[in-house]
Specification:
The chain is α/β, with parallel strands linked by helices. 38% of the residues lie in helices and 20% in strands.
């Protein structure tokens, strides 16, 4: 057991007036399995880069072990997957790589195929295996779940649960609960390390927030009462001072004035103490304001129908045929392994102008005059200003920006080029745009990729309150179980 120590860490990006971190200090045990959480844009990836020595900062980082980062770059993806792993972990024997691949449910034959031909899930798993084969390193694992289906997430969680010595950035609650023993949280005002899984941390945080909020409200009332008392005492003191003029017993009057003055000073001191105590509260309170959506109600009960439908590629079905209907009020989650054609099925409902046309087999029927709001899986195309994006989408600007603010966007972000946004912030732009549109049917393709947990909770509450008609692909088990009224499982063709 050894300790990583962070002392007085301070960092700001060049040209920024705001520090990402300011005089942050804490210690980490190299045997811990840390889940790293916090709102998008709070600096999680920045902190990992600081640990890797990629950025210069004030303060100091002391570590008895070297750091290693996921995902590491693959410079020659055309090489065999086995060679890619060997390149990162040259000391590993073939049998060790095969063992780790087996633990991650990757077929041995995949190791003898070009790395670039593997699925995203297979690539993720083998990169993780490569990291853990280098013994003695403390691993920095940055959002591995974004390319993993539900089964893959459960496999990787079970794998990580048997390992130690890592920081894991993830926004999937079930995934975190399955493999961590400590939580490292970036809050609004500080960074905190707590023992336990994510659910225990969240419960503790919610309880602390409730206590602080109650104390805050009590102090507000006390400050108001003291202000009234202070004004009343001041008025009395002034009245007593005036009564000195022509008074027979000036000593008595002076004594009364002094007494009033002392009372005023005591009241003022109590008020200042209460104000100081109040100002120390709520610094880390995350006020997840309720989001709103304005769904339209189509006159038809049945909005769309899939009958033995499957996307196709080169004349061959991508998935086994699926049949289901979408009716008003349905919230349908498409489930299944990566690569089985779930996203392609979504696109069958999107107007050709919005997405690339997807060839398909079977029948897909869509009711007339159906207004659809679509959130694509990949937000990386976003660049330029928010104003330019708003103009191109004909967005209700006040509503759109109000939603972004509720999802923890600072006003300074409104002026930045979206190319500088984190992946989570980009995804929030697409979600906020969808939420600001009135539609009969909302189609979201992996909407939670990169999105922080508190925003996920906001979306769960939104969907539970307004009950829009929704068709989505999502691998966050907790989210799907919370909001879906039905699920449709999609199998890969021949699988």
């Amino acid at each position: 057991m050894s300790m990583i120590e962070i002392r007085n860490l301070t960092f700001a990006y060049e040209g920024s007036y705001d520090n990402v971190f300011e005089n942050v200090s804490f210690r980490l045990d190299t045997d811990w399995k840390l889940g790293f959480t916090g709102r998008n844009g709070r600096g999680k990836t920045t902190f990992l880069r600081l640990l890797m020595g990629e950025l210069d900062s004030g303060g100091a980082i002391f570590s008895p072990v070297p750091f290693d980062y996921f995902p590491f770059p693959v410079h020659h993806p055309e090489e065999l997957a086995l060679e890619v792993v060997h390149y990162h972990s040259p000391a590993a024997e073939d049998w060790e790589i095969l063992r780790e691949a087996s633990l991650l449910h990757v077929d041995a034959e995949a190791l003898y195929r070009p790395f670039c031909t593997l699925s995203n899930g297979e690539q993720t798993k083998l990169l993780l295996a490569g990291l853990f084969l280098k013994e003695g390193n403390f691993l920095l694992i940055d959002e591995p779940t974004n390319h993993l289906d539900l089964e893959g997430r459960e496999t990787v969680a079970a794998y990580l649960q048997k390992k130690k010595g890592f920081i894991l950035v993830s926004h999937d609650r079930a995934f975190l609960d399955g493999c961590i023993d400590h939580v490292l949280s970036i809050n609004k005002a500080d960074i905190v390390v707590r023992r336990g899984n994510f659910s225990a941390w969240l419960e503790d945080k919610e309880q602390q927030d409730r206590l602080e909020l109650a104390k805050y409200e009590r102090l507000k009332g006390e400050i108001k009462r003291l202000e009234v008392s202070s004004r009343r005492t001041a008025a009395w003191s002034e009245k007593v001072e005036k009564s000195k003029i022509g008074a027979a017993d000036k000593g008595y009057v002076g004594h009364m004035a002094a007494k009033m003055m002392k009372r005023s000073m005591v009241t003022q001191a109590r008020k200042e103490k209460a104000i100081e105590e109040k100002s120390g509260l709520l610094k880390n309170l995350e006020l997840e304001e309720a989001l709103k959506i304005h769904p339209l109600e189509h006159p038809s009960l049945r909005l769309a129908e899939f009958h033995n439908a499957s996307a196709s590629w080169n004349g061959k079905a991508v998935s086994e045929p699926v049949s289901f209907t979408i009716e008003r009020g349905d919230r349908i989650a498409l489930t299944g392994r990566n690569g089985c054609g779930k996203s392609s099925l979504l696109k069958l409902l999107i107007p050709d102008a919005a997405v690339e046309r997807v060839p398909y087999m079977g029948e897909v029927h869509i009711v007339g005059n159906l207004k659809i709001s679509y959130v694509p899986q990949d937000p990386s195309f976003l660049k330029g200003t928010l104003a330019e994006f708003e103009e191109s989408r004909k967005i209700d600007v006040p509503l759109f920006r109000a939603i972004l603010r509720k999802m923890d966007f600072s006003r300074v972000q409104f002026e930045k080029d979206m190319a500088s946004y984190s992946a989570g912030q980009k995804k929030k732009v697409l979600l906020a745009a969808s939420l600001s549109e009135s539609a009969h049917l909302y189609i979201w393709d992996e909407p939670l990729n990169y999105v922080d947990i508190l925003s996920r909770i906001q979306l769960e509450e939104l969907l539970g309150t307004y009950k829009p008609t929704l068709l989505l692909v999502e691998h966050d088990r907790h989210f799907v179980e919370t909001i879906a009224t039905k699920t449709v499982h999609v199998e890969k063709a021949g699988g």
